[in-house]
Amino acid sequence: SGGASDDGKHGGPVVLAAASMHDALEEAADEWAGQGHARPVLSFAASSAMARQIEAGAPADMFVSADEAWMDELEEGGFIRDGSRAVMATNALVLIGPSDGSLTLDPVSGFDLADALHGGRLAVAETESVPAGRYAKAALSQLGVWDSVKDRLAPAENVRAALLLVARGAAPLGVTYATDAASEPRVRVVGTFPAHSHPAIRYPVAMVATSKAAEAADFRDYLLSDAGQAVLAGHGFGPAEQAAHD
Amino acid sequence: MSVFDIDITVKRPGRRIALSLQADESVVAITGPSGIGKTSVLDAIAGLLRPLEGRIAVAGRVLFDRASGIDLKPEERGCGYVFQDSRLFPHLTVEQNLTFGLRHAEGEALTTLAECADLLGIAHLLARRPRALSGGETRRIAIGRALLRGPRFLLLDEPLASLDDDRREGILQVIERIRDRFALPMLYVSHNPEEVRRLAGKAVAL
Amino acid sequence: MSVFDIDITVKRPGRRIALSLQADESVVAITGPSGIGKTSVLDAIAGLLRPLEGRIAVAGRVLFDRASGIDLKPEERGCGYVFQDSRLFPHLTVEQNLTFGLRHAEGEALTTLAECADLLGIAHLLARRPRALSGGETRRIAIGRALLRGPRFLLLDEPLASLDDDRREGILQVIERIRDRFALPMLYVSHNPEEVRRLAGKAVAL
Amino acid sequence: MLSPTEWQIVALSLKVSVVAIACVLPLAFALAWVLARKRFPGMLLLDALVHLPLVLPPVVTGWLLLLSFGPRGPVGRLLNDAFGLAFSFHWTGAALAAAVMALPLMVRAIRLSIEAIDTRLESAARTLGAGPWEAFRRVTLPLAAPGVLAALVLGFARSIGEFGATITFAANIPGETRTLPLGIYTALQVPGGETQVTRLALVSVALSLGALVVSEWLARRGAAGERKGHVL
Amino acid sequence: MLSPTEWQIVALSLKVSVVAIACVLPLAFALAWVLARKRFPGMLLLDALVHLPLVLPPVVTGWLLLLSFGPRGPVGRLLNDAFGLAFSFHWTGAALAAAVMALPLMVRAIRLSIEAIDTRLESAARTLGAGPWEAFRRVTLPLAAPGVLAALVLGFARSIGEFGATITFAANIPGETRTLPLGIYTALQVPGGETQVTRLALVSVALSLGALVVSEWLARRGAAGERKGHVL
Ligand SMILES: Nc1ncnc2c1ncn2[C@@H]1O[C@H](COP(=O)(O)OP(=O)(O)OP(=O)(O)O)[C@@H](O)[C@H]1O
Ligand SMILES: Nc1ncnc2c1ncn2[C@@H]1O[C@H](COP(=O)(O)OP(=O)(O)OP(=O)(O)O)[C@@H](O)[C@H]1O
Ligand code: MOO
Ligand SMILES: [Mg+2]
Ligand SMILES: [Mg+2]
What we know:
The complex is a heteropentamer, with one copy of chain A, two copies of chain B and two copies of chain D.
Chain A: E1 14-18, H1 22-34, E2 41-45, H2 47-55, E3 62-64, H3 68-76, E4 86-91, E5 93-98, H4 113-116, E6 122-125, H5 131-142, H6 146-149, E7 153-156, H7 159-167, E8 173-177, H8 178-183, E9 187-192, E10 201-207, H9 216-224, H10 226-234, H11 240-244
Parallel strand pairs in A: 1-2, 1-3, 6-7, 6-8
Antiparallel strand pairs in A: 3-10, 4-10, 5-8, 5-9
Helix pairs in contact in A: 1-10, 2-3
Chain B: E1 4-12, E2 15-23, E3 27-31, H1 38-46, E4 53-58, E5 61-65, E6 70-71, H2 74-77, E7 79-82, H3 94-98, H4 113-119, H5 135-148, E8 153-157, H6 165-182, E9 186-189, H7 193-199, E10 202-205
Parallel strand pairs in B: 3-9, 3-10, 7-8, 8-9
Antiparallel strand pairs in B: 1-2, 1-4, 4-5, 5-6
Chain D: H1 4-37, H2 43-55, H3 58-69, H4 74-83, H5 91-115, H6 119-127, H7 132-143, H8 145-161, H9 164-170, H10 180-189, H11 194-224
Helix pairs in contact in D: 1-5, 1-8, 2-5, 3-9, 5-8, 5-9, 6-7, 8-11, 10-11
The structure holds adenosine-5'-triphosphate (2 copies), molybdate ion (MOO) and magnesium ion (2 copies).
Domain ABC transmembrane type-1 (chains D, E): 10-213
Keywords (chains D, E): Cell inner membrane, Cell membrane, Membrane, Molybdenum, Transmembrane, Transmembrane helix, Transport
GO molecular function (chains D, E): molybdate ion transmembrane transporter activity
């Protein structure tokens, strides 16, 4: 087939990656290319869209999901190469507010989140479908505050949009990944959710079953290597190992 | 006070058309070869085309006077204009076309809808739309619309073109009756010398 | 072989129009009151309106025959049709309107563009668009377009309506010349008895 | 057939779209009329502004709405102080987003119809005593009906399908701003959500098919009186 | 002003939109003509089908494209076997998505213009010897020009702004399918990417402003010959 990976224009493997990994993977790709390899072609979109592209037979080589559910789905369908799945990075969940505020609020059991909203809404990624939102719901439930805020949510399309709502003052507080909060100067971290309050936030990586690109597997291995992990850590992602211990 | 006191110059691409008309007769015919500017002059009197200069007064009422800055809007002039191209409203029925101007009647009521439809032989067409009419039917409805509007004066641009002799005679009689009973001022464009002789007290050639 | 051999019934909402015409004369006038069906009959002969039944033959050529299933398309009939409502193409210049059918000339060339524009007095209008024309100018261009199309026969629906006497005379002479020189069959709708007398060898009243 | 939650989504979508289109129609007509009939400096700029929501990715439009109509935006603050109107996280915000996204389509359709009107008919109405406004109401407006009808269909369809600007500006709040596309999107994010996606998508299609049927019926009713008996 | 990567995005967007609109125009015209002139059973269905990409959230349209035109989709397989045409991860896929999303807008605009044409003019052309096709080419087509022009502007603007269907169907491949809206989306993921977002959004606006200027100029040229000297 005449897909992008084998028309010679793009030497490198085609990597479908969760949008929230953009900066980290771009830097990793640069590093990799700097070592004399063909630069991987990175396509960022929502995990659901990319999983469907793989199911439809699109000529991708590698998939980095923000969501284990989609990776499970692909694995069950036989769309990913046996044994190639691994956790590439982890993340933490934080409560954010505008950077000009001074509120600190420790997300511990029963903390008074509803009150801190002062009648405003809590920006989150959509809590049924978007991974960041599902983690937020899990954490808030576990801490016993879900019922007090579940009608006071501003569910956004994805975690970046939730970030934007807080940055623009449309919502006084929000729940995002630590990596997102670190990247936006107009917000500050008000508090970090304890790791035990939500399922581990893992970014699984895997090779697409039909991948034929020469160095695809090598790039995956690079990402999991110390050098690759160092790049990811530079962008605030937690190490792959941590997840493995869960 | 003359019925018509008109002295205007109208601009058309590449030419100017001048009309100077002082008349005490209530019906004045305007003649002249095709393309000379008859329709343009009527448009100017109706307020659809602004003259370069001059003055228009009909029955003592000043409609336009460049010098004193008077320029009545078309709807204020109270004319009943039978356009050369009829201009029936395609979205309205014949009846709705006929009664379009009723609510703005300015002069005396010249006729009623029933009488007018009868005189013009269009009573059977009232529910139709203009697109499904013959050429002569269209013409007759255009005449009816102008009469029913209760005008202060009439502008008739070849009203009887494309009508057969019997119809033509019937409508000529209607116009004569209006002329005699209401002394309504009329400007009548026609190429038919007999019509002109019969109707008009005066004829100006452009 | 007769020039016109026509026997048709045409349907119009609420009525039927019948024309039966056998004529050896090359010009036949069709008269009748407004709304009787003259235009409908011409439309049927031009192939724009399908007769309910009957037969149409002009100069020995069968254009329509219900019985034998013949029904030539309008473009195959080779008529030069001067529509009552002119129907100039608004997006084309006068010259482009005139020469629209040139490439499909079927009969002999009756005239050239230059000659035709000259005879009809429209030479100065060639670069204009139809919207900026007077009523009589529009009419003359419609006539020119039909003549230049190189027709096998002409359908003229009140071609001289809204033209002044001089123009009318000039165009009558042109039509007479075409009649005499080319023996071109013509159906001529007119309300003017004098025109009918002068041009037509025969007149049928609808 | 549909669950209560799904019915809620459908009802909300209808409310949002109907309100959006009803409110934006007069504005669309006014803009179309001005663009069709007037020549003025800055006309191109106005034209471009109207097209903006078409050109920009919907998310950017939503973002711009947030900047201007959000609680801290200049217009948003004004409207809130003056009329107590709040848009963010409110169904009115979804309606505003739908209206803004539908506007360019509606303006174009109406403008095309207005440009096709023979202005000589308006002159005729004026000589019959109708002032500019009456001539507009009795001649221009009815003659522009095909464009208005097309605008309603296009606008309604577009607003039933509007996603990006809505979710960015008004968020995805069940019962408040979760319209059909947002419901569909939510379902699309989860593996196995396809059956719900299909169900909601079919409802969307049914809604705008309904609008189509009504519009074609209205169009035919309007044209019926003008039918010609001609073969060609 | 723009970086090389940004220029690449702009050039790609132009290529995708121009190819999409050029390819879909004849189809849009044909559909508009059929819907305006023909009455046939199933007409409403065709009409609804054309409107589909307007009603459905773009992401769903992209998904449907993936299912039918993807490498495993029935149409995709056919086109690949017959012509070696592949869409996924390829700029042709972005063009296909843009074309599909622009189609309903283009069909409506052209249809409005065709419906406004006086069919008696086509009859006149037929009596002058022009066959149906020639009458179409010399009368119908030029008289539909305002609609075609509007269709080009709407379609171009829509395809310049198309995001959801493209990213779902053709992915977000730099240099291949990362058009302006996808570039904007990508920039939104980057800390401080808002200046780049603004820059790319301005380029989008400039592109379609250009298209607007050209179209208004063409429209005025076409109308120039028909100007009337009348006050009203
Ligand atoms: N397009 C149409 N659809 C329906 N009915 C029509 C249509 N055109 C004309 N008619 C009707 O058919 C009848 C015959 O019309 P036609 O145009 O043939 O008359 P005509 O003899 O040419 O009249 P005129 O001298 O007024 O032009 C009239 O009653 C008219 O109302
Ligand atoms: N809308 C217009 N725009 C520009 N020029 C026009 C317009 N209408 C008419 N003209 C030109 O102005 C001149 C006068 O036209 P007008 O219609 O007044 O003539 P007319 O005397 O009524 O002719 P006819 O007897 O043929 O109707 C003609 O040369 C014509 O070509
Ligand atoms: O796909 Mo995300 O980055 O978990 O919102
Ligand atoms: Mg005239
Ligand atoms: Mg007739």
